[in-house]
Amino acid sequence: MKRLLWNSITTLRFYSSSSQNVLKTGHVLKQARIFSNSDIIEYSKLTNDSNPLHFDLERPKNVGFADLPVPGMLIASLFPWIIASDFPGAVYVKQTLEFRSPVYCGEEITGEVHASNIRQMKEKYMAKFITKCFKDGGVLVIDGEATAILPTLAMKQT
């Protein structure tokens, strides 16, 4: 039932505990996205990333991919999107990434940020997150860690 609901709504937030909307260690925030060919084209225009691996069907097949892969950094953009959606004004200061499995257009990708450490710095908060992206079947496609400076621990109401 939960999976059926997830498929019908492309953007959801889940909080692992507490009915309060205040970020605490252990909270998990999630959002899902399906990347399209037009997303790859727009990403390429914006970043000047014209790697033929993402445009010439023969290139990815020659190196073992089943199809044109979505750029890993485009997928990783889910992490700051999730954080900024809940904490407008957040400053993203660090991200490590490990790319584990390819993602192809049309696959639903779920980005997760798990609050692992929060400390107060004067009137702001330094939050560390474990970051992961999964595709259908729970296949891990990206994992890493992120650090952000949050203006508040109060999560934006949706």
UniProtKB/TrEMBL annotation:
Domain of life (superkingdom): Eukaryota
Q: Name one GO biological process term.
A: fatty acid biosynthetic process
Domain annotation MaoC-like: ranges:
29-124
Q: Name one GO cellular component term.
A: mitochondrion
Q: Name one GO molecular function term.
A: (3R)-hydroxyacyl-[acyl-carrier-protein] dehydratase activity
InterPro entries cross-referenced by the UniProt entry: HotDog_dom_sf (IPR029069), MaoC-like_dom (IPR002539), UPF0336/Enoyl-CoA_hydratase (IPR050965)
What does UniProt give as the signal peptide span? none
Annotated protein name in UniProt: MaoC-like domain-containing protein
The organism encoding this protein is: Olea europaea subsp. europaea
